[in-house]
Every structure is written in C-alpha cells, then in structure tokens.
Automatic annotation (TrEMBL):
Keywords: ATP-binding, Glycolysis, Kinase, Magnesium, Metal-binding, Nucleotide-binding, Nucleotidyltransferase, Pyruvate, Transferase. The gene is pyk. Belongs to the pyruvate kinase family. This is Pyruvate kinase. It catalyses: pyruvate + ATP = phosphoenolpyruvate + ADP + H(+). The lineage of its organism: Bacteria, Pseudomonadati, Pseudomonadota, Gammaproteobacteria, Cardiobacteriales. NCBIfam families: PRK05826.1 (NF004491), PRK06354.1 (NF004978), pyruv_kin (TIGR01064).
Length: 476
C-alpha cells in the first residue's frame, strides 16, 4: 500500500551524522524542516545542499520547509543553568536584568514588552506550562509574580500568557533576515511563527515576493488569537501547522483535540494543506520504539485527514531518527487502511458551488476515481493547484502531479496522496501527450499495461490555472 500522509522531519545534529540524512529520506521523509531557531545560515545552506544532492541521486523529490523563529517570548539565563522555584515563592521577571545572572529570585527576559502586556492576576505559564506563576504587580522593568506551581526552571524557556494577548509581532528583524536567506536557497515553504491574523501572513508574503521567492507560506497556529481568526489566516496562507506545544499552553490541554480536528477540517474545506506537529513521537528521542499513546496520536491525525505529520527533536537531536521515520510511516499506512473517517467526494462537494474550472475538473476526477475502476490519477500542472484540489478528498487512488517546474514539484511534496514528478511535455498533439505521460509513469513504476488512468490537463500547454480537460485512458 502506498502511504498517502506525508512526513516532515526536522534537520539537526542527529541528521548531520554520516548516513542519517540519506537514511531518513529512504525511510520515507517527504519534506525536511530547517529550524531557524537554531544554527547559522551556513548550517542551513549546507543541509539544503546535502538534501538536494541525495534527492537527485535517489530520484526522490524532497521539499524544503524553512521555519522562522518568531518573537523570542522567553526568559534569559541562570547563573547555574537552572533553579528550583518553590510554590508560594516570589519570582521577578525583569526586562532590564543581566541576561546571564538569573537566580531563584529574579531572571531577565528576552521579551521586553512583557511589562506592558500583563497586569495583576494574569497567569504566566513558563516552560510549556510546567511552571505557573501569577502576576502580583508590575513595577517599571519588573513583573512581580507568585509561584503557583513550582519545579525546575532552566535557561531560555518560553513564556505564555494564559488566554493569550501578548503583543509581540509575528516577524522580527531576525526573521526578515532569515526569510531572505531561505529565499536565496529557493525554499519551497516558509513557516511563520505566532501569527495573530491574516495581516501577519500578508506581511510575510510581501517580504517573500520582494526577495524574489515563489515559496508558499505556512501559518503556525500557536496563539489563541490565531484560533479566533483561523479562517482569515488559512485564506492568507498556503498551509497551516497545528503547532500543539504553545497552542496547548494558551488554550488549555483539554481543548487541544477539538481545536486540532476543527483546524484540519477547515483547512481542507478551504483547499489548504495542513501539518500536525509537536511531540508526535517524543519518546523516540531516547527510545527505539514509540509508546502506544504516540501510535494512537499519529493515527488520529491521519484519520482526521492531515496532509502531513511532523517530527521535531525526534529527528533533529534524537538517538533513532531513521527508526523514528520508519515507525511513523508504518503507523500512517496502518491508519490509512482503516475507514473510520473518510471524506468522500460526494460528502466534500455537497452543497458546494465551484468558482473555477480547475476545481470542477478536479472534483469530477475524484468522483470518477472513487466510483470507477481506476488505478491512478494524473494531473499535468503548472502551479500544483489541481493536485492540491484533488488531495482535499480522501481516496485510495494515488495522485501523480506532473510538472515542468521544480518549485511546483517541491510544493506538492506536502500534499496528501500526491507524488510529484518533474516532467515536460514535448508535443502539442493530445495523443502524443498521453503517450508521453504513460511512458513517464511506467518509468516510475506507477502503472503497468492495462491499467486505467484519469488524466487532467489544460487544452493549452504552459498556462497556469488552465486545467479544463479530463480524459480516461488505458495504459498501453
């Protein structure tokens, strides 16, 4: 069975080890993530070059996702690296304090605007909610708090305001420099951290276009404001990421599952891709097999219809990155074989009005594929849009996106059920084009003689948004 759900893996020290990067690509990674919170531009460029060399050699298209750090809403460092905060103790967050002189009584903060964003009785969650403090007073550069839930607090841990409301902009000066770096090495996707609304995504898109990049944008849903403005953020983006770490801290763990399911469903309804992320295989940072809870978590996201599941520290810094990818791929296939949550074409298009010809063609192809004996769906595409539209509907039929553009193939690496193939049409005659398509599919061992396939294309070659033709053909 061909896996449809895509795997995104974060690169880091673990994947820099000899043979590991090639190992995870062979094991099933579709998109690699560059985390701009860590490493230098030179580190990221070196990893991109390595990915592309391996991808070309193995003839496996691998997408590049550049993840911007976003605002540093963090504490600074402690003298001894960490402290123990006792319940009931006073703890001061000081925007003017020495960045390296933190103690159990006081620590500096990277986010200088915290003093303007909080007031007495606000609840601050440190280190993903492991430490909970209540604001008692704001005095100049100091936020005075009382520790409600204590424990060990170490350097550079995050700060969240319960209920949201921090005013930090989504794009920092560092993000803007990193975005230009990503544009220069022709990244396929750029992920924006902590967007609050569609305007944050519009700003990022304008900066990308100014840098000459055609990269698509991923909105990381991490703030309660983003949940509130989810439709405008989805529509201003090309994909979203359900970033469950900071999001869970802001909205509460009990509301996370419902939020995940609604966001995945809404992204698909609005014809956008969606990644589910954070702690999906966390135990495999140290262990060679996942917990049953992790198996269920990944499976649940697959059944919800996510386009991709993501690995963070598991692949970037874990002991078993290759084994983790293999395990995740097996879990995805197992979940996809079940039919508990299937969005059929009939259900998807019920009461929908199509505004564009390519959407009507894509949905017609999916209805045919699910009600006729068809072995493959093939779309000749300039932008990848037809393949994306097809992938919004659940089907066991593989979708092959044939494109002459490397950047379009890179984007399609994220779409559920779509295999991108770089391919140029050399003929104008329709019969010759169909013959070329069959030849390249055979080369990729996608079809065999006698298979029935559906081909969608535009009547005019090399025209974006021009898909207006659907044909059923039998492979010779």
């Amino acid at each position: 069975m061909q896996r449809r759900t895509k795997i995104v893996a974060t690169l880091g020290p673990a994947t820099d080890r000899a043979g590991v990067l090639e190992g995870i690509i062979k094991a099933g990674v579709n998109v690699v993530r560059l985390n701009f919170s860590h490493g230098t531009h030179e580190d990221h460029i070196k990893r991109v070059n390595a990915v592309r060399e391996i991808s070309d050699r193995l003839n496996i298209k691998v997408g590049i996702l550049s993840d911007l750090q976003g605002p540093k809403i963090r504490i600074e460092k402690f003298v001894d690296g960490s402290v123990i905060l006792e319940e009931g103790a006073t703890f001061i967050l000081d925007s003017q304090y020495d960045d390296n002189a933190g103690t159990a009584e006081r620590v500096g903060i990277a986010y200088k605007e915290l003093v303007n964003d909080v007031k007495p009785q606000d609840i601050l969650l440190l280190d993903d909610g492991k430490i909970v403090v209540e604001v008692t007073a704001v005095k100049g550069s100091e936020v005075h708090t009382k520790v409600n839930i204590g424990g060990v607090l170490s350097n550079r841990k995050g700060i969240n305001l319960q209920g949201g409301g921090l005013s930090a902009p989504a794009l920092t000066d560092k993000d803007k420099e990193d975005l230009i770096c990503a544009a220069n090495f022709q990244t396929d996707y750029v992920a924006v951290s902590f967007p609050r609304n569609g305007s944050d995504m519009d700003e990022a898109r304008a900066l990308l276009e100014k840098a000459g990049s055609k990269a698509h944008l991923v909105a990381k849903i991490e703030r309660i404001e983003a949940v509130t403005n989810i439709d405008e953020i989805i529509l201003a983006s090309d994909a979203i990421m359900v970033a469950r770490g900071d999001l869970a801290v802001e909205i509460g763990d009990s509301k996370l599952m419902g939020a995940q399911k609604r966001m995945i469903m809404r992204a698909r309804e609005l014809n956008r891709a969606v990644i589910t992320a954070t702690q999906m295989m966390e135990s495999m940072i140290e262990n060679s097999s996942p917990t049953r809870a992790e198996v269920m978590d990944v499976s649940n996201a697959v059944l919800d219809g996510t386009d991709a599941v993501m690995l963070s520290a598991e692949s970037a810094a874990g002991k078993y990155p290759v084994e983790t990818v293999k395990a995740m791929a097996e879990i995805c296939i197992g979940a996809e074989s079940e039919q508990f949550s299937v969005l059929t074409p009939n259900a998807f298009i019920k009461d929908r009005k199509f505004n564009y010809t390519d959407e009507a063609i894509a949905m017609s192809a999916m209805v045919l594929a699910n009600h006729y004996d068809v072995q493959a769906l093939v779309c000749l595409t300039e932008s990848g849009t037809t393949a994306l539209l097809m992938s919004r509907v659940t089907s066991e039929i593989p979708i092959y996106g044939l494109t002459r553009h490397s950047e379009t193939a890179g984007r399609m690496t994220l779409y559920r059920g779509v295999k991108p193939i770089e391919f140029s049409v050399h003929h104008a005659n329709e019969e010759d084009v169909v013959g070329e398509v069959m030849h390249v599919l055979k080369e990729h061992k996608a079809v065999k003689s006698g298979d029935r396939i559906i081909i969608t294309r535009g009547s005019l070659n090399f025209v974006q948004g021009g898909t207006n033709n659907l044909r059923i053909a039998v492979v010779e």
